[in-house]
Amino acid sequence: MLPTTTIGGQEYVALDDIAGSFGVALREDRLAGGVTVMAGTQTIIITADQPVASVSGRLVSLSAAPIRQTNRWFVPLDFLQRALGPALGTRIELRRDSRLLVVGDVRVPRVNARIEQGASSATVVFDITPATPTKISMESDRLIVQFEADALELQLPAVPAQDFVQAVQPGDAPTIVRILPGPKFAVHRATTSQPDGSSARLSIELLPAGTEPPGPPSANPPSATPPDANVPPVDPLPMPVPSTGLRTVVIDPGHGGDEQGARGPGGALEKDITLQVARRLRTMIESRLGLRVFLTRDDDRTMSLDDRAAYANSQQADAFVSIHANGALRPAMRGAEVFYLSVDRADAEARRLAESSEVLPTLGGGTRAINLILWETAQARYLEQSSALAGMVEQALRARVEMSPRPVQQAPFRVLVGASMPAVLVEVGYLSNSEQEQALTSAAYQDLVAQGLFDAIMQFRSHLER
Amino acid sequence: MSRRQILIGVVIGVAAVALGWVLMTNLSRTLRTIEPDSVAEEPAPQQTTPSVTPVVPRIKATLFFASEDGRGLVGVEQEVPLAEGAVAQARALIEAQLSTAPPAPLVSTIPEGTTLRGLFVSSRNEAFVDLDATVRDRHPGGSMNELLTVYTIVNAITTNLPDVQTVQVLINGREVDTLAGHVDLRRPLRNNEALVIP
After folding, report:
1. According to the model, what pLDDT value does residue A360 have?
2. Residue A220 has pLDDT above 50, yes or no
3. Phi and psi angles of residue B182, each rounded to the nearest 5 degrees, phi first
């Protein structure tokens, strides 16, 4: 949350609030009438009365000059996007209409909803940009539309209650919209279309009793009886052919460059094995599944863990698989293992805070607020799906290679923390065991592992489409 | 009255000193009896110089080492010097963890030569353990090894000092991403029972 204040018709943010939210340091030079903002190794210099900022020597323009007022410095809102983002090396996007500040590469689609009233039905139309997979279910007497995103930029219609729709409201989670049906509603029918390449349109028709519902005929075809509160969840909406629930996979070959990872007794290096397995898996997915597939590195380079997750986020990946080879203190240890992120109570609390939409009072007298999506909580939203993916990887690998005594575990692995999608880390075997070292360097074993991971990804795709 | 008060004071003082002496003698005997076996097996030269070094009170604490097969941690009860306050006690625990040779067939999870540079405990009961770069430079790598190293440090403090709930490992006084490319050291970690083999 970042409070804003309006001074002279222009919206400002206090620098000390920015410092608190983004972890940057401030140094004021009263003689020169300016402030230096230290963001890691980069510095931003601003001066009162000049609508520019110097970002490590490069001047960027601001919509208004910074102001010093009652011992605090205020900068115009676009300072975040134009100066702070480049200095931090992070994308900061300011969406003024929805009062949303998007930090880093997170999925925050714009969702505009409207209601089209008909004589014997009503249709709730969602225009979603960029196109984002959705799932529709019935909970109690409400229709729940869940978007596969980190947050939504929502514009919902305010309409009087009608026969088929009483209201369209934000749901309990930030990626859910709730439709409260009216008294005449009995069944719904959903269709999606893509009016252009980048956005999708989801239309949910709310129909009276006696209408044929979508999907395969069920054992109990709908009759004139009104729906009761215990209607089981309706199957999620099938997506159009080109867009499945799993369209992009990012594979992360662990380590690389100066960071060699584990080393086998025969000298095999983890960083080489991970890249070889990742390339084999990429070839299989590309040739047989037709998904978009990217490697975080395709050569022997050093890459930070956060950069790997950020890359997956920027590709809007639907699954992230980090490949590693393990090392143990004792040579006897063997077998493959799958990890997904462990989240402790402190993280859960941070997640709750990140998801809550408290509004802080602002200096200008209003109560406007901006949501920040925290890197540290990105993966926490996907734990359930990551756990499902880990289970599928374990099952698929077990059919082909030896598993360790603890095949699925949770651990606080850094590379998984910032991934905004289902994410797992796979240890494909123990390099510290000479026999496994030999296997891990062989094309045959690498193919078995890649095939197992391929099977798991295929299964995960079906799971998401279900 | 004042002479009588002085007399009473003197008598009480003498009695307190005597009581203290008796207690200390008994306590040091008691403490000697729970010295580790290895002390009793010290080589002969030790016997020629009777022990005159002050006896440091010791507590029983659980230290952690890798299991024989290397797939988890095993808690081993060891005596560690008793220290005043959480910070000093946590330091004594980590120093013991770094210097204690693991009983066979267990293995140390911390690279040999690693030293403790500093240790502090925040007001939120988070311990910060600052190790020198040996722990990273000589680390054999692999996520299993890394988990065992990190949670040896975390569990050594949180198991023995329940008031301290989280531990963050620093290297050369700095916060680091990881020790060997896996475990997130950007934040304090909680006790990990799942890694401990009962």
Report:
1. 43
2. no
3. -130, -65
- Residue A160 tokens read as 């009087």
| Interface touch A270/B141, C-beta < 8 Å | yes
**Length of chain A measured in residues:** 466
Inter-chain CB proximity A328 and B109 less than 8 Å: no
**pLDDT at residue number B14:** 52
pLDDT confidence band for B31 (50 / 70 / 90):
very low
Provide the pLDDT for residue A53: 85
d(CA A324, CA A322): 7
ipTM above 0.85, yes or no: no
Identity of the amino acid at A181: P
Instruction: Check: CB of residue A416 under 8 Å from CB of residue A341.
Output: yes
- A267 has pLDDT over 50: yes
> Which of A157-161, A249-253, A322-326, B139-143 is predicted with the least confidence, judged by mean pLDDT?
A157-161
Residue B33 has pLDDT above 50, yes or no: no
Residue B147 in contact with partner chain A when CB distance is under 8 A: yes
Q: How far apart are CA A459 and CA A121, in angstroms?
A: 37
Q: Which helix (H) or strand (E) holds B136?
A: helix B134-137
User: Among B92, B90, B152, B172, which Cα is nearest to B125's?
Assistant: B90
Direct distance between the N- and C-terminal alpha carbons of chain A, in angstroms, rounded to an integer: 36
Shortest distance, CA B176 to any CA of chain A (angstroms): 11
Q: Smallest Cα–Cα separation from A342: which of A439, A425, A411, A421?
A: A411
> A109 or A253, which is more confident?
A253
Task: For residue A390, give the nearest of A406, A373, A366 by alpha carbon.
Answer: A406
Q: Look at residues A205, A208, A236 and name the one whose alpha carbon lies nearest to residue A222.
A: A208
Query: Which tens digit of pLDDT belongs to each residue from A275-325?
Result: 999 999 999 888 777 788 999 999 999 999 999 998 998 888 999 999 999
| Domains, chain A, ordered by start | 4-103 (3.30.457.10), 110-207 (2.60.40.3470), 248-465 (3.40.630.40)
Q: Cβ of B107 and A330 within 8 Å? A: yes
B138 in contact with A, Cβ within 8 Å: no
**B22: pLDDT strictly greater than 80:** no
A262/chain B closest Cα distance in angstroms: 4
User: A58 pLDDT exceeds 80?
Assistant: no
Average pLDDT over every residue of B143-147: 96
Looking at A143-147, A277-281, A378-382, B101-105, which range is the least confident one? A378-382
- Residue A52 φ/ψ, nearest 5 degrees: -140, 160
Q: How far is CA A204 from CA A126, A127, A234, A421, in A?
A: 8, 12, 13, 26
Partner-chain contact B184 A413, CB within 8 Å: yes
- Which residues fall within 8 angstroms of residue A257, CB to CB, at 6 or more apart? A271, A300, A301, A302, A303
Q: Check: CB of residue A450 under 8 Å from CB of residue A280.
A: yes
Contact A104, A90 (CB under 8 A): yes
Crossing angle between the packed helical segments A443-465 and A270-288, to the nearest 10 degrees: 50
Interface check for B112 against chain A (CB to CB < 8 A): the answer is no
Measured between alpha carbons, how far is A256 from A240 in angstroms, rounded to an integer?
Answer: 39
**Residues of chain B numbered 152-191 and touching chain A (CB < 8 Å):** 166, 177-178, 180-190
Q: Which residue has the tokens 């709908």?
A: A222
> Which residues in chain A have Cβ-Cβ distances shorter than 8 Å to B177?
304-306, 414
Question: pLDDT band for position A142 (50/70/90)?
Answer: confident
> Which residue of B71, B166, B190 to mutate against A (max A Cβ within 10 Å)?
B71
How many residue pairs bridge chain A and chain B with CB atoms within 8 Å of each other?
102
